[in-house]
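Hey, I was hoping to borrow your eyes for a little while. For a while now I've been wondering how a particular protein folds. The fold is given in discrete form, as structure tokens running alongside the sequence. Could you read through the record and tell me how the tokens relate to the sequence? Take your time with it, there's no hurry, and the full record follows here:
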Amino acid sequence: MSATVYGLGVGPGDPELLTLKALRILRAAPVIAYPAPDIGDSFARMIVAPHLPGGQQEIAIRMPLGDGQFPKAEIYDGAADEIVAHVAAGRDVAVLCEGDPFFYGSFLYLYERLVDRCALQVVPGVSSLMACAGAAGLPIARRNETLTVVPAPLPDDALRARLVGAEALAIIKVGRHLGRVRRVLADCARLDGACLVERATLASQRIAALRDVGGDTAPYFSMVLVPSARS
């Protein structure tokens, strides 16, 4: 019996932002898998919890999260083997991924381990980028403007190189790099208009002008949006 692995984008946090296709597959799959911290609850599973029908087998892919040490090769290898065993037994597996699976998603690391071993389908989700822009009410690119997505963990020189001459900017993975990001934006004369969005779409969501935010760290789920200076 053939079975399929589905990479489900489950969105940024609000359970109502799950797509209809993802919801259908989520409810039908006999097995669900999701990333989880080594101790505690999985955020991806928390997003979909209101929609789960019950009775599904679950694979918690546990690892230290948020430490920047990706991918966890041995952990993803083991998870891939466990998923393939379910597929071989004829059971579909829905792998949950916060945001969108192919936009800096954790599912990428499983995809490359599974693509030659079983049938795969990727179901796009609402990305954190779109969620943050919508939450902030901040159109970040229009007409022929270019949007540049920059990971905050890049070294200062690499950050500057990507900011200089850029139009609209989205700086992701801010977390403990908040102070550095603020400093580099100020050095590049791009701090004015920069907006920090924390935990977009959740009850704990926070939106503020970056220059008014103190401290050097932000929650793991944070992003800085910088509209084009030409807008």
